[in-house]
Amino acid sequence: MKCAFLLLACAVMLRVSAQEKLVIMGREPNRYVVHTVKSETSLQTVSNQFGQSVTKLAAYNRISPNKKLAKGTQVKIPLTQYNLVHAKTDRSSAPLFHKIAKGDNLYRLSKDSKVPLATLKQWNGLKADAVKIGDLVIVGYMVNAKTEETPEPAAPVTVREETKTTPVAGPKTTEETIVAKTEEKPAGRKEPVIAEKTPQENTVTAKPAAVNTAAASVSQTDNTGYTPREGDEGYFASAYAQPANDQNKQFHSGDAATFKTISGWSDHKYYVLINDVAPETIVRITAPNNKSICAKVLGPLQETKGGSGLLLRMSNSAASALGFTDPKFTVTVTYFE
């Protein structure tokens, strides 16, 4: 029994030590981490692992989006205000390290990373302020990132449907669908599927078909006293209308498509996948017919077959509210940052 326990402990230690450590390289505004490919794979797999689009990674590394990556290939993953945070987060994240060089100290790291000294010591299990040249010190976290590779699935995964009884306001309970199953689609057209959890679990996970993406957690507990009305901008409209005083309005325009979800049809809670906009940002999407809805950003837009050049994907309930019926359409997006 002792022998088996020791073998298990050794296996766990080897697994932890083998996990990739993301060390920050470069200088502002061009900082990045380097990911070393463990086995032959595609840029799509790296995209899935770090929550950044294939197009962006290909451009940043000056390689073809379709290039096969051999074992040992090093891929640069850019760090931006959207994926580098200076606090632990509930969303999928991986620690970011600074390698101590000559002249470095914890006080300077605290000032440069905007992380309190006490927090740096807590993250790194340090009891004293002293650090040595070559030490790796956690100075932040990379959201929508994993330290282990997530291979692409060989084929689209059909998610089984199940139900769960959850308490709601009032004396009654309702049966709520937790996972949406893949719906039948016209030949030649494939759309990602959103799997949702109940408000009790306080998460909504965006998961396009045939692509493993990082889970994006979205709070469902905010109560605005909202009552859905035909033709309104939706549940998140009131949040969009109250930006912070120091935020500026941003504009984007481009092609959009949809993903399938059970959300939004009755509660008017609309969601969107878009690159380079922070998760949980509220955006307004306007159609050429001047109809508009407000949606919450779940995370970055993952590259899928037939999705090249898209600005965003929105929940199909949002597209319906805007009056879209085509597979691809043009929209204008505004938000505050």
Defining key terms:
Barwin-like endoglucanases, six-stranded mixed barrel, 7 helices, 337 residues, alpha+beta, globular
Structural summary, described in words:
The protein is α+β, with helices and mostly antiparallel strands and 337 residues long. It has 2 domains: 19-143, no CATH class; 191-336, RlpA-like domain (Barwin-like endoglucanases, Beta Barrel), CATH 2.40.40. The protein is built from 7 helices and 19 strands. It has helices at residues 2-18, 43-50, 54-61, 106-113, 117-124, 237-240, 316-322; strands at 22-23, 25-27, 30-36, 41-42, 68-69, 74-78, 84-85, 93-99, 136-143, 163-167, 173-177, 193-196, 204-207, 249-259, 270-274, 282-286, 292-299, 312-315, 329-336. It has a 6-stranded mixed beta barrel. A 4-stranded mixed sheet has the order 1-8-9-7. A 3-stranded antiparallel sheet has the order 2-3-6. Strand 2 (25-27) and strand 3 form a beta hairpin. Mean pLDDT is 74; it is low at 5-17 and 150-223.
